[in-house]
Structures are given as structure tokens and as C-alpha cells.
Amino acid sequence: MIREKIKAELVAAMKEHNEAKVSTLRMIGAALKDKDIAARPSGKTDGISDDEILSMFQSMIKQRKESVELYEKGGRADLVEKEKKEIELISSFLPAQMDDEAIKAAIQEAIATTGASSMKDMGKVMGALRGKYAGQMDFGKASGLIKSLLG
Length: 151
Prior knowledge:
The protein is mostly helical.
């Protein structure tokens, strides 16, 4: 489903002659192809799942946010704007993001279902959250909340 949406967006951007959007969508396609190829040895001949694609999008957004910070420090407003546009486009493929209250509720539910009681169990909780809320949750925020609840 996500793959089809990316392809449709690419075709539309090409028809509009929107070079920035075409470039970003091609970059997404290349990253997706790399992930698909890397997944082949583990038996995933059809490519990675939608959840894995959403996780890839979150990683791409995180990388761009880090680049924005560096470009701002370096005084490169042109590159800051380019990265922000890429973030916006990549974000459009993600489902609605959870707010802080929803994240906290999901973490408390994951802690209860996994039986987590200490920091040693943080991996179990994160695994449960990644399986259920891929693409919907900022796992950086979630990590801090898990530490505060288990710590």
C-alpha cells in the first residue's frame, strides 16, 4: 500500500515538473530498494513489510532533523530549507503521530503486558511498542518515558 502511494506521488510530481519532490521521492525509492535487497537473505523476497517501511521513514526523518541542526549551526539556510521540505514529504507517508498522553498510555500498557519491572526489561517494552506502533510513535520520546517509569 505504501509502495503504491510512493509510486503514485512520484508520477504526479513528474507530471507537475516538481524537481524537489521528484528528487526526494526517488531518494525514498532508492532507500526502499536497498532495504528490500538487504532483506532477501532472510527470505523476504517480496521486500520489507509496511511496518518496516514506516520505521525506515522515521529513521530518514531523524537523519534530516540532525542535518537541519548542523546546517543551522553552519549558517546554511538553503540546505536547512531543503531538509525541512524532505522531512515534510517523508512525514506525509506516516500515519498520524501519537501525542504524549497516548504514548504514555501505550507504554503503560506495554509494561503491563510484558511484565516489565526494571530497566533490564526495557528491550521487551520497546520491542512490544515497535511491533504495535511502528510509524505512529516517536521512539526517542518513548525511550525516555520508559526509563522514567521503570527506573
